[in-house]
Amino acid sequence: MDIGEMFTDALPWLKKYRDAIIVIKVGGHAMVDSEARNGIIKDIVTLRYMGMKPVIVHGGGPEIDAMMKKLGKTPSFVSGLRVTDDETMDIVRMVLVGKVNTDLVALISRHGGKGIGLKGIDGNLLLAKKKGPERITVEGKDVDVDYGWVGETEKIDPDILFTMLEKGFIPVISPIGYDRDGRALNINADTAAGDIAASLKAVSLLSLTDVDGILMDPNDKASLLSHLNIMDCYDLIKKGVISKGMIPKVLSSITVLNAGIESVRIINGNVKHAVLLELLTEKGIGTQIVKE
Amino acid sequence: MDIGEMFTDALPWLKKYRDAIIVIKVGGHAMVDSEARNGIIKDIVTLRYMGMKPVIVHGGGPEIDAMMKKLGKTPSFVSGLRVTDDETMDIVRMVLVGKVNTDLVALISRHGGKGIGLKGIDGNLLLAKKKGPERITVEGKDVDVDYGWVGETEKIDPDILFTMLEKGFIPVISPIGYDRDGRALNINADTAAGDIAASLKAVSLLSLTDVDGILMDPNDKASLLSHLNIMDCYDLIKKGVISKGMIPKVLSSITVLNAGIESVRIINGNVKHAVLLELLTEKGIGTQIVKE
Amino acid sequence: MDIGEMFTDALPWLKKYRDAIIVIKVGGHAMVDSEARNGIIKDIVTLRYMGMKPVIVHGGGPEIDAMMKKLGKTPSFVSGLRVTDDETMDIVRMVLVGKVNTDLVALISRHGGKGIGLKGIDGNLLLAKKKGPERITVEGKDVDVDYGWVGETEKIDPDILFTMLEKGFIPVISPIGYDRDGRALNINADTAAGDIAASLKAVSLLSLTDVDGILMDPNDKASLLSHLNIMDCYDLIKKGVISKGMIPKVLSSITVLNAGIESVRIINGNVKHAVLLELLTEKGIGTQIVKE
Amino acid sequence: MDIGEMFTDALPWLKKYRDAIIVIKVGGHAMVDSEARNGIIKDIVTLRYMGMKPVIVHGGGPEIDAMMKKLGKTPSFVSGLRVTDDETMDIVRMVLVGKVNTDLVALISRHGGKGIGLKGIDGNLLLAKKKGPERITVEGKDVDVDYGWVGETEKIDPDILFTMLEKGFIPVISPIGYDRDGRALNINADTAAGDIAASLKAVSLLSLTDVDGILMDPNDKASLLSHLNIMDCYDLIKKGVISKGMIPKVLSSITVLNAGIESVRIINGNVKHAVLLELLTEKGIGTQIVKE
Amino acid sequence: MDIGEMFTDALPWLKKYRDAIIVIKVGGHAMVDSEARNGIIKDIVTLRYMGMKPVIVHGGGPEIDAMMKKLGKTPSFVSGLRVTDDETMDIVRMVLVGKVNTDLVALISRHGGKGIGLKGIDGNLLLAKKKGPERITVEGKDVDVDYGWVGETEKIDPDILFTMLEKGFIPVISPIGYDRDGRALNINADTAAGDIAASLKAVSLLSLTDVDGILMDPNDKASLLSHLNIMDCYDLIKKGVISKGMIPKVLSSITVLNAGIESVRIINGNVKHAVLLELLTEKGIGTQIVKE
Amino acid sequence: MDIGEMFTDALPWLKKYRDAIIVIKVGGHAMVDSEARNGIIKDIVTLRYMGMKPVIVHGGGPEIDAMMKKLGKTPSFVSGLRVTDDETMDIVRMVLVGKVNTDLVALISRHGGKGIGLKGIDGNLLLAKKKGPERITVEGKDVDVDYGWVGETEKIDPDILFTMLEKGFIPVISPIGYDRDGRALNINADTAAGDIAASLKAVSLLSLTDVDGILMDPNDKASLLSHLNIMDCYDLIKKGVISKGMIPKVLSSITVLNAGIESVRIINGNVKHAVLLELLTEKGIGTQIVKE
């Protein structure tokens, strides 16, 4: 295909996403592979220069684990949440804010964009409250768990994001919230991305994962389901097509859609130019979920 | 090459031309071939949606000739200028403003853009003065010529263009000026485009012609000169490489460059996506002339 | 009367119409008599400099007829609408946009104002849809008619007008609409003026005609009815005082009043300074219709 | 002449003075004759509604004298300046600010305008310094005089005037300045008007007096000199045509012109509609002085 | 206490009143004691520089009485209202606007602020209507009274106040209203302050009086009631704790609170720094009345 | 002294610093003592609410040392600069950006302000270049040293700071710069604070240290020099009064003063309310250095 053709083919999407806010959750393998990370950021800077307003929310589990080990601590999880004691909370902050976030902003700068690193306390962006302690059922037994400094979003104040977007910046957000006493809380990156997208009335939330999207047959890439609505999702969960780790991702997508976001897209961050292909081509590359 | 790659390859140009004003002179064969015209306008709408600010200046000689013939008049030219009596001036206005310009604006609309048709009198955009009568030398003989209502730019007031660009419009300009008494004057489209580009401090002026640019050997397309500066141009004129109809085009380009425009590009409007390929690829497709 | 007295007598109207949008439909004899046309435009430029915001909508039937004849075509009408084939549509566009409109803008410039010529496609101002083909009753017989490229307003986007008014321009609009496929449609100028006035929430619509307004006795100019409301109009139609060609004019005025315009004024464009006298004197010169 | 004609005849002046700041010094007989005062204010409100920006500076000598007498004090003057002791200063403030100024603002309101009364202390508009005590020559003898609280302009801060003009108000200014210690000083109204006009870069200063302007022969109204430049003025002073009380008025006009004001106009405030006739007719009614 | 402590202790109030409009009624003894007046104005300028937006409304009874006597007139009151004939109205205007108001603005300037003196006619701020004549009961007898030019607020247009506050000015308002015919009316300063506070949606109205607030035991300063709500007030009136002159003050406070003001504060203007202590300390110094 | 008095005594400084940008370098003991840190931040939030625009630049040496030790690394310094290898650079970033900076922003939030944490890469705020390797003289011997990732400011782009200040935020900046390839560089906090103050045209730079300022006799607190100019400083260095660690601090202050900052103040961060006392009292508490 010729390059001119490609641009004019993209015209409907350029129109649709002009000045649109798009939240991109960056996580998984792409975060540890520097080439993949570089490609994703280059795509995002390109989006910005084509007139869109991307907002990045990042994770960083593997890097946190590595630092904990260096400092002689053993990571521990309950129901997929990292149990976060005082020391762990400091490590989470240092790794996510001081290292991962800062590296992403530096990459944006290298590709000619203007990034700004943010966490929940900046401009009182993400007010959170501690989750638990609570009694849950693990493997059939009732147990009391205390996740420590794990939190849930209480309120988003998107004002600082609108200011930065208006000025041409690409915000990069670490999923660390703060409670009313100014204490840091560790928030799940997927949830934070969804909450932020909802508060910004973003047009779309892109979730970069390590899988191609939702497959009818997990062993057949060709069985990718490109376009689902909420009803479809519930059906597929019932039928077991959507299962395991994908269930919470899909359920949280449904929450976001109900909050007014037009579409959630689950794509494979390891595919080269996944972000651009998903947003600027007719077919896209992953699974797009819409309300109806 | 893969689509995503093409997009990110365009990043340097997207950055360079972000919010940049680019004047595009549309003329020649492309104006009579509806498919070519459609392609050019689609390219230009795409530019707009990627954040540039294109301004179109159009010609329309063949359509004027056709209407003159229908009305029983014979077109007549002196030194390349159309001798323009009262009736011809009315025909020029009707064809350029009422038909050609309006068709281009309609095409912009069809591709999802917002165009606005303008001529010199709108917002006092292009004040002109009558050219001649004067004594010139034709084929060795001195003759007195009166071009009639042919004019030259006296002053451009770009205010209305800045207003329209600010509001997201694509201006389409017919090269008809008006003198201080409100009389219409027929202006050469290339000259008008140059004058307008200079008054807008445009980044670049693209001139769509029927040739590939400046060729070292007119019979060998591969001998295209992609990048020239003003000194090169004078050299090539002296050597006869730039000759005939290309001389005034190049000389007027030099005037525009001296007025502060960064580059003038002579490209073949009949090449598919000529505009996008010239602006968004490293190599371009025609001849780019810069000051130094 | 002394000139100072006149200005202070006008104070109530200067106050009332300060910054007010006033749509002026210019048509009839005044359009072919250059002195009358010049006087009307001078009045309108004076309004602008006294702080009002006039918008001009013009017709041009006689000039279209003349050009059609020159090109060997015979004008044809059904129920007062010009049957508009492809060739006629081109002629309508060329005459209205290329000649009549451009002449009015040039006159504005000559009197020191800044005009801008517009038609329906500019800034997607007037989206229209084709009227018919339909079965109507003509002289007692049912006939199938196809008006060709005759259209009706589907939607007005007044954005470009507000922009131009804000910047001090006087917009001059040719009543040519465009459908969703970018095809030109011939619209009745009175209807277009009414639709535009409604979309702008204009304070008043002035319709310049060849008659003095609505007369109780058509043979007695002194029987002019200066002030009517909608109920009066229906009564006068029933009584036959309002008859023939005046009926559609009055019915369309009622539509405009119901859309929120404060007053419609039917005045004689052949009276010197008709526009100023109507707007800036207690008595006015024509018939003013208000809602209640 | 017909009304419409009068309006369009005013077009050149409406254009010239559109958005122009015009300072009007109101004094003399007109200030004590309530009908004349009413007429002047009505003219000024009309100017505002036609798009100009009038600023009023008023005097009030006769009313001050009257109040002084009521309170048992005898007005006293040296070289045309009112000797101003503490008690007199209080009377001056009370009469000018509390009565004369307030009456003018109320008249503006009655004619539908929005006035605002100001004196030198408001917004630190007019910083002044005490004049004298000094040794002057009176009737051939050197005497030491102390004018008391008489002041001269030290600095104008026109910011508050620009704010009020921008918001559509007509400022009415009492010529009372304040020194750096917040003490009130009595300033000559003509001088204050000139200083304010200069600081506002007004287009014109109108001085309403009780005479028709500068006459070649003081007994022949027909000998009015309509248009003078600075050189003419010096000549006429030398020749004795400009004499007595008119000399300081003309000299201060020259100062104002040198500060960048386009014209100073000396007109008879007792002529009906003097302000409008002077500004909106070709001929004017008084003497206009320009730089060259 | 150390100065740093004091500032940080004030932090909650600095936050609460940041950009808040606070109307301050200045009257009583403080108006005739120049040192007290100076202190109050210094406090108010300090408020402005700490980010609040104070608006001053002043009285001036004693100074009016003094001037009336000087001019041989005897002040006369009915039900606490000054009977205001033509001459008295002129004196009221001259004293309040020309002297008291102007002195306050000069004090603001001396402390480095920018004041602006206003009365009801400026910018049509306070439209009033004449009160009475009416039949009232005085000491058990029905009598017909005509207060003369005494008025009541009909409508406040706070536009000019918002403009001045936005620009950093401290408005100083004389309680003189104007009726629809431009006639001056004498308004009670407390009522005017309340009406103005309500129209500005002020956060608080401070009333500077000669008493410490509302005391449970009038002979015991320690019995001050610091915080009351509307119900408390009605109770205290019933019980006789609030009595005599304080009753109308409290009733008018209730009206203001019902119009949406957060609090009314009755404080002793003779206490040094009463305004700052009331607004910037936890305890305050007078009685604060709130809705509930 | 009474509270109100203290407030009005601060009036000259409230005026002087209204809307003024003040850069505050926070370092030393105050950074490790949580109560002192809390007090400093409360002072700074108070400044903000009184209308100033504070900007914080922080150090964090002790916390970096602690983390290095935890990770088994030994801090090493050459000429007072931390030798920064890859791993150290990561630790510096994590500790400063992820912990120290984030804690300060959380404290701002707790006191009711809105903070935002920044480092050099955000909005391309601080472009730096690597210092050395270079040959220096240490204890009389020439040695080649490589400081590793230690940098010097190349260019400040204060745009993001102006944006944040305009929106009411308190920026908190970690002194980490980035070079043109997006690599992090460790910058001296004092130097960074000075460079940032200069780029912002700040009114003053406050340097919070562990000493009381410059003392004539180091053992006598009463010998504090409150006010010095640049000439004084050079004299005192010559005389040995300014010595050791204070020399570079004073020399860098001189650079900042020459860049247009009005004053540099060296104060003891361990004194309660040091910031407020220095800025809002006549005497201040430390040493203020001005140009002349």
From TrEMBL, chains A, B, C, D, E, F:
Coiled coil: none annotated. It comes from the Archaea. GO terms for biological process: L-arginine biosynthetic process via ornithine. Signal peptide: none annotated. The record marks 25, 249 as: Transition state stabilizer. It is an enzyme of class 2 (transferase). Pathway: Amino-acid biosynthesis; L-arginine biosynthesis; N(2)-acetyl-L-ornithine from L-glutamate: step 2/4. The keyword Ribosomal protein does not apply. It is found in: Cytoplasm. Its EC number is 2.7.2.8. Substrate binds at residues 60-61, 82, 186. HAMAP family: ArgB. PANTHER family: N-ACETYLGLUTAMATE SYNTHASE, N-ACETYLGLUTAMATE SYNTHASE, MITOCHONDRIAL. Belongs to the acetylglutamate kinase family. ArgB subfamily. This is Acetylglutamate kinase. It comes from Methanooceanicella nereidis.
